[in-house]
Amino acid sequence: MRILEAVSQIGRNGASIFARQLIPRLQARGHEVWLAAAPDSWIAQETAGQVRLVATDFARWPLAELRRVAEFCRAERIDVVHSHLTRAANFCALLRWLHDVPSVAHAHSSHFQPHWYCHDLMVAVSPQTLQRHRWRLAGLGSRGRVLPNFVDTERFAPARPGGGGDPLRIRLGLPADAPVVVQVGEISERKGQLTTLEAAARVRAACPGVRFVFLGIERSPPPYLAALQAVVARDRLAEAVVWAGRREDVAELLPWATVAVLPSLDEPFSLAGLEAMACGRPLIASNVGGFPEMVTAGVTGLLVPPRDATALAEALIGLLREPAKADAMGAAGRARALAEFGPETFMVRLEALLAEGAKRGR
Q1: What's the CA gap between 128 and 84, in Å, rounded?
Q2: Helix (H, G, I), strand (E, B) or coil at 324
């Protein structure tokens, strides 16, 4: 197929990373791929020289930019446009409505978007996400599909002990024997770092020496950051907490975590959760969004209520005190990631949905 991937995110987030991973995989499977994005966007810079760029700001008014991109699609005989994020999906809905360009929109969140019913297909990352959109948009009807995210199971893989030592503890200056709880994701209220910190004092009392590592940049307004700092000060957690910021070596660090936590308040289908499972680490996550479809409770990890620091602390203490149980959950998570969330399975399903969307649009 001839596919135009449309990504409106300027910076880097889960959806743009997802699209970045798709492009070379589509190319490797014989598809011709173009990228519609702003020239200064993270994804455009990351794929420079690897994919042909259709530079656009996704302006919907006046209509000149829509006409220009529609003419490009006709000239290049694009079979389907596959959009990610709100601005791109809105733009592609108008391409479909005004210029009959076949459109498949990828819903990476549960936020209400009226444009979903203007596409030939809307692909949601979890059943819960699709259910929310169907409830809000009766007109969505049969155009909704579910396709869970995938994880690169070669890049994210269990630790391989060897001469290089333990990169998580070495690079972050942690004691070699310290249990380490890792949370990956932007520092924001939605990701639930406050719940992790509120659980930390109780976990430290039961498991002395434990460290809490947060991998991700700050995206929250000052009040949330102040709340995090207040808990650290109140419970004297400064020695136990590491704010590692954005790291390019997450795939090297994560396999060495003792436990991964994701106490999000809302999470359609977490890439960070899949990465922890692929690395063979037990995952403790909130019982929200796509996590119940991802985590087999009691087998690959544990689910706790959102905002419940007591439940999170109890789950952490249980796994930290029983390392054999934690390792068994991690191994089961790795097996499930390979069987159900690997890239090959995902690509076969995605190709079928893109082909269906292209057919519907003709």
Answers
A1: 18
A2: helix
